[in-house]
Amino acid sequence: MTAPALEISGLGKSFGGLRAVHDVSFAVPAGSLTALIGPNGAGKSTLFNLVTNLFLPDAGAVRFFGTPLAGMAPHRIAALGLLRTFQTARVFPGMTALDNVLAGAHRHARAHPLAQAFWLPAARREERALRQRASALLDLVGLREFRNLAGTSLPLGAQKLVELCRALMARPRLLLLDEPAAGLNDAETGELAGLLRAVRDSGVTIMVVEHNMGLVMDIADEVVVLDLGRLIAKGSPAEIRRDARVVEAYLGPAAEGVR
Questions:
Q1: Domain count, the chain
Q2: Pairing relation of β-strands 222-227 and 230-235?
Q3: SS (H, E, C) 94-124
Q4: Does 149 fall in a domain?
Q5: What is the CATH number of the domain that holds 88?
Q6: Residues 5, 184: contact at Cβ < 8 Å?
Q7: pTM of the full predicted structure?
Q8: pLDDT value of position 116
Q9: 100 pLDDT exceeds 80?
Q10: 128 inside domain
């Protein structure tokens, strides 16, 4: 059997007297699009930080396609193909939107340093191919006209899309997205849904933290629900809509109208 893209076992983390994540265990199937939901303060972003070792867990283990991640530096985890975005968009100052996206390709550059230093034909060909791919990604998310503008000058929603494109430029095997729809209008959210489905269908596993329940129920294969740092439910969107614990903790009576 194929190993899960992500396997979390007994994960726990406390900050002083606050237990942010408590004994959380679940698996993300390879090739799936899984949503992680829960009220504010449920531990969702902390869980992402634990998976990528930005925070070190107090207990438990994380495996990425069967490889234990314990003690591995975040940049080594990224090199394995586990990439993430952040709740607050992180674009590099002093760089255009296009250059921000190109930064995601640094681990895939193959031209010899001497070829790059002397701008030999091999380096020029590689640079041209990477720029074409970065431009295509910006076109895909509707940011073509902003490609030469400073990344930090873009609206928040556009910065989130630039960050997503940068992560895709790194050719991830598993992509963790922290509130990718924040700052997007309804039309942009619909385009994001189509993009995420296309990325999943290309073979990239996705796990997304998101508060837009319409988007979650539309795109997710499975939904994982946290409340006060504990796992309270996991299942299909239809199962989650009917789960009394989830309705009480997070969705509320309005969940009946979410389809």
A1: 1
A2: antiparallel
A3: CCEHHHHHHHHHHHHCCCCHHHHHCCCHHHH
A4: no
A5: 3.40.50.300
A6: no
A7: 0.88
A8: 60
A9: yes
A10: no
